[in-house]
Amino acid sequence: xxxxxxxxxxxxxxxxxxxGLLKRLVExxxxxxxxxxxxxxxxxxxxxxxxxxxxxxxPTPRTTIFNVGTLDPDKAIYGAVRTLVDTGSMSxxxxxxxxxxWGVEELYRKFELGKVDVADILSEVEGTT
Length: 129
Known about the structure:
The chain is 54% helix and 9% strand. It contains 6 helices and 2 strands. The chain has a two-stranded antiparallel ribbon with strand order 1-2.
């Protein structure tokens, strides 16, 4: 059996548009769910995984936001993506970046409709699994 070795990036990010949405999610005092952008980014990845999203490319222009070692020090994101998704020839963290893009867009859509309530989102996702 041949195993293809895929090089993992050391940094990941979002499109410039989604990066702006991520900042707003964290900065807006009405929200209050996420203390830091990394928290919202991680949650966005989990949300996309829970919805079984097959994400598209991260639109350009793209911006780097996080060092992978800081965002995922225990490799929990890496393990979740690797376990739940066949990323093919794409690196796990590039796939996670795509999931984050979708998740941030979805979180912001919910935010525009009212306050982002993590408990409500988790209940909603629980009903889809």
